[in-house]
């Protein structure tokens, strides 16, 4: 710093020698100019040390923070993009699985409906067969009762026509005869 001051004072002295009219015109004295230059240099050094240097370091720190923030934002953007792709794939896979589940449910429901229909048809057929068997059994029972009643009526009529009591053997013979004739009809 001192060499700078000496250089400034030498320059001022040479300027004084070169332009005597200017110094006299403005009333400049070299000692005041040198003191002003020294004051300026001291003020410049203080401002640089306590004002400009901390400001520059703060700006560098902020630039570093901004750069790291930008890098972080870029990383987050990449992660977000990857996450969006991944979620889109998950949604697509879920839709495919849901479609498969729906198709499987439809198939299962169709099979269940067919099975229930077959079972209902089978039960209806079984009930119909049982009803037909019951009707046939009832018909046979009714025919047997009718035969017995007809045989009884034949015997009663024969007894009245003959006006005598029939023996058990005669009754059996008449019953067989009536039964044979009923079977033919």
UniProtKB/TrEMBL annotation:
Cellular-component GO terms for this entry: endomembrane system; plasma membrane; proton-transporting ATP synthase complex
Function: F(1)F(0) ATP synthase produces ATP from ADP in the presence of a proton or sodium gradient. F-type ATPases consist of two structural domains, F(1) containing the extramembraneous catalytic core and F(0) containing the membrane proton channel, linked together by a central stalk and a peripheral stalk. During catalysis, ATP synthesis in the catalytic domain of F(1) is coupled via a rotary mechanism of the central stalk subunits to proton translocation. Component of the F(0) channel, it forms part of the peripheral stalk, linking F(1) to F(0). The b'-subunit is a diverged and duplicated form of b found in plants and photosynthetic bacteria.
Name of a matching Pfam family: ATP-synt_B
Gene: atpF
Subcellular location: Cell membrane; Endomembrane system
UniProt keyword terms in alphabetical order: ATP synthesis, Cell membrane, CF(0), Coiled coil, Hydrogen ion transport, Ion transport, Membrane, Transmembrane, Transmembrane helix, Transport
An annotated Gene Ontology molecular function: proton-transporting ATPase activity, rotational mechanism
InterPro entries, alphabetized: ATP_synth_B-like_membr_sf, ATP_synth_b/b'su_bac/chlpt, ATP_synth_F0_bsu_bac, ATP_synthase_B_chain
Source organism of the structure: Cephaloticoccus capnophilus
Principal localisation: membrane
Family: Belongs to the ATPase B chain family.
Source species, domain of life: Bacteria
Protein name, UniProt field: ATP synthase subunit b
Oligomer status and interactors: F-type ATPases have 2 components, F(1) - the catalytic core - and F(0) - the membrane proton channel. F(1) has five subunits: alpha(3), beta(3), gamma(1), delta(1), epsilon(1). F(0) has three main subunits: a(1), b(2) and c(10-14). The alpha and beta chains form an alternating ring which encloses part of the gamma chain. F(1) is attached to F(0) by a central stalk formed by the gamma and epsilon chains, while a peripheral stalk is formed by the delta and b chains. F-type ATPases have 2 components, F(1) - the catalytic core - and F(0) - the membrane proton channel. F(1) has five subunits: alpha(3), beta(3), gamma(1), delta(1), epsilon(1). F(0) has four main subunits: a(1), b(2) and c(10-14). The alpha and beta chains form an alternating ring which encloses part of the gamma chain. F(1) is attached to F(0) by a central stalk formed by the gamma and epsilon chains, while a peripheral stalk is formed by the delta and b chains.
């Amino acid at each position: 710093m001192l060499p700078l001051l000496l250089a400034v004072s030498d320059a001022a002295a040479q300027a004084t020698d070169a332009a005597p009219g200017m110094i006299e015109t403005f009333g400049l004295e070299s000692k005041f100019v040198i003191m002003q230059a020294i004051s300026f240099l001291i003020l410049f050094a203080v401002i640089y040390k306590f004002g400009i240097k901390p400001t520059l370091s703060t700006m560098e720190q902020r630039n570093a923070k901004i750069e790291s923030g930008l890098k972080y934002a870029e990383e987050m953007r990449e992660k977000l993009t990857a996450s969006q792709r991944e979620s889109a794939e998950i949604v697509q896979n879920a839709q495919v699985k849901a479609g498969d589940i729906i198709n499987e449910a439809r198939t299962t429901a169709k099979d269940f409906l067919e099975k229930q229909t077959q079972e209902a048809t089978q039960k209806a057929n079984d009930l119909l067969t049982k009803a037909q068997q019951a009707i046939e059994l009832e018909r046979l029972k009714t025919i047997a009762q009718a035969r017995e009643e007809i045989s009884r009526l034949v015997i009663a009529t024969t007894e009245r026509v003959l006006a005598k009591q029939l023996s058990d053997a005669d009754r059996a013979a008449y019953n067989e005869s009536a039964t044979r004739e009923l079977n033919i009809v």
